[in-house]
Write a structure and sequence with these properties.
By secondary structure, the chain is an alpha/beta fold. The protein has a domain at about 50-130: 2-Layer Sandwich (Nucleotidyltransferase, domain 5). It is built from three helices and seven strands, in the order αββββαβαββ. The chain has a five-stranded mixed β-sheet, covered by helices on one side. Helix 2 packs across helix 3 (about 105-120). The longest helix has 20 residues, at about 15-35. The protein is elongated. The N and C termini lie far apart (about 80 Å).
């Protein structure tokens, strides 16, 4: 009886497991980069607005419910806020100031913070809100 030999199979590189690995690494680095974002404000309960849109904030002024003012998470006396903002404005003239105020804070405290920014020479300001959930 004569046995015939089969020709040897050629070696192949399977690409599917490599694609799975690359996709997993992509997702991992995307999630890691999202975790590294820095929020410079104080956690507040922001009011909601339909016209709200995300912005990149450079300097954050946070006004808490009891009227305390924070500049990039550092508590600042209202009398010194203008000086601190003026020093930051000299370093970067095109900076944007985002005023984040608790939904229950009195209007007077928000106006004082915005006025301090205006006196410091800052013309680009925004008010932080939470976007309204669309139905």
């Amino acid at each position: 009886m004569k046995l015939t030999r089969r020709p040897p199979k050629k070696a192949r590189i399977e690409i599917i497991p490599m694609i799975d690995t690359v996709f997993f690494l992509l997702v991992f680095f995307m999630m890691a980069s999202l975790a590294m974002t820095v929020y410079r404000g104080v956690p507040l309960s922001l009011p909601k607005a339909a016209s709200g849109e995300p912005r990149e904030d450079r300097v954050s002024i946070s006004v808490t419910r009891d009227g305390m003012i924070y500049l990039n998470r550092n508590q600042v006396e209202p009398a010194r806020l203008t000086e601190e903002l003026r020093a930051l404005h000299e370093k970067e003239p095109e900076m944007v100031v985002v005023v984040s105020a608790d939904g229950d804070v009195t209007h007077r405290h928000v106006v004082e913070a915005m006025d301090a920014a205006r006196v410091a020479g800052i013309s680009r300001m925004a008010i932080a809100v939470q976007p309204v959930e669309k139905r």
